Amino acid sequence: MTRGIVILLLALAIAGGLGALIASDPGYVLVVWGNASLETSLWFGLILLAVLWLLLRTLFAILRAVGAGPGRLQAWQHRRQDRRARDETTKGLLALMEGDWARARKELDVAAALLDNPLVNQLGAARAAHELGDASGCERYLQEALAQNPKATLAVGITRAELQIADQHWEQALATLLSLRKEAPRNGQVLRMLRTVYEALQDWQALAGLLPDLRRAGVMGEEDAAVLERRVWRAELHRSARVDAGPEGRLAALEKAWSRVPKPLRREPELVEVQVRELRDLGAEEAAEELLRATLPSHWKDALVNLYGWVQGAEPETQLAEAEAWLSERPNNPTLLLTLGRLALRHHEWDKAREYLEASVGLRRSAEAEAELGRLLLHLGDHEAAARHFADALREFGIMLPDLPLPEQT
Predict the structure, then answer these.
(1) Do 207 and 195 contact (CB within 8 A), yes or no?
(2) DSSP reduced 3-state for 389
(3) What does the pLDDT read at residue 60?
(4) Digit-coded pLDDT (tens) for 62-105
(5) Domain end: 263, 295, 327, which one?
(6) 275 and 344: one domain?
């Protein structure tokens, strides 16, 4: 405000000074052109020249504007069209994120007509058409996007695969993704979707082959990759043991699948357990016993110890001696004692079997150990003790009987 007052006072001072100067000496100007002449004061002449200069400058500016008019008008129209296209695209993408499919499609369509390269709009409109159930419209948008952008095969293909997966069209999605993988073998999104499709198709062999690429591309962390790897090989072993090739063919397929399992995983208790169960179901108990005997010393797991009592090796006496050697390191392991009881039964050592089973039950009551001991006692003629252990087994199984009247025992 102070600055404005200063400027105003300065302007008044200058105006007053000029007024005094003009009043004291107006000056004289004479302009002669042929027989015509113009006579005026100096100050009026200066004002006239200034006005004439402003008029000429304005005229030249108008002439320049008229000469450049079409180009400037066209540039203005382009700017206006670009601004409208951006606004419509933004509205369409927002509607797409909000799930307003009809409005999204409309806005993106309008904007696409205003753009030289409407790839984003076409892909967005394809998604909107898909959500609206317009399969032909969706495909049309994708085809238009590819026709106008031949180098956008990856973007268009990924969009198509995502929509096929959403519809659970697994075979179509697989064909699309395999084609994309040739173009971009390390693309993370392509690899992620391939994993999804292989899992849906339960193509574990293909998924096993994909695992190294998933790791290299950094698509998943090491822990997640390890979990997936175990799941893949577990499923592949299960599948191989059920091929339509007869018992011998299934056993051969299972052994071949096991040979393909990465060597470090062949000592993983989880996978060893799967392999042993499949071998046992196919009657290859000796192979199952050998695998367990090779695994347990370095990868102890109670589930594997339990399985060791379910399979019969080539030499039951050697198998029993092997398990008894483990007992020196784990004398109070109830699962190992249960297994030793079963191995003693296989070797017809009834008293030793009873000792092991009673020791197992004494350390931890389990339905399995109680039932096994009850069965042995029943065959040894100790019916009362057998009945007691069978009743305990029922309780451990969670089977409770109501308190009802019963006849006296005879």
Answers:
(1) yes
(2) helix
(3) 80
(4) 777 666 555 565 665 667 767 887 788 888 889 989 999 999 99
(5) 295
(6) no
β-strands 36-40, 29-33 pairing:
antiparallel
Indicate if 234 and 278 belong to the same structural domain: yes
- The owner of tokens 């109670």 is 302
284 and 359: one domain? Answer: no
Number of alpha carbons in the 13 Å side-chain half-sphere of residue 39: 0
Instruction: For 15-27, write each residue's pLDDT tens digit.
Output: 666 666 666 666 6
> CATH number for the domain including 331?
1.25.40.10
Structural domain boundaries enclosing 327: 315-398
Q: From the CB of residue 379, how many other CB atoms can be counted at a distance below 10 Å?
A: 11
Same domain for 287 and 319, yes or no, is no
State the Cα–Cα distance between residues 12 and 3, nearest whole angstrom: 14
Three-point CA angle 175, 213, 188, nearest 5°: 70
Mean pLDDT in residue range 30-51:
70
Domain end point (choices 239, 264, 295): 295
As to burial, measured by CB atoms within 10 angstroms (0-12 exposed, 13-18 middle, 19+ buried), residue 292 is buried
Structural domain includes residue 28: no
Give the CA dihedral 133, 134, 140, 145, nearest 10 degrees: -40
Segment 326-337 mean pLDDT: 94
Tokens read off for 116: 């030289």
Q: Which of 275, 244, 277 is nearest to 260 (CA)?
A: 275
Residue pair 247/216 in contact by the 8 Å Cβ criterion: no
Altogether, the residues listed in the chain come to a count of 410
Interacting residues of 376 by C-beta distance below 8 A, sequence separation 6+: 341, 345, 350, 353, 354, 357
C-alpha angle 224/238/367, rounded to 5°? 90
Q: How far is residue 105's CA from residue 122's CA, in Å, rounded to a whole number?
A: 9
375 and 343 in one domain?
Answer: yes
353-364 average pLDDT score? 95
Does pTM surpass 0.70? no
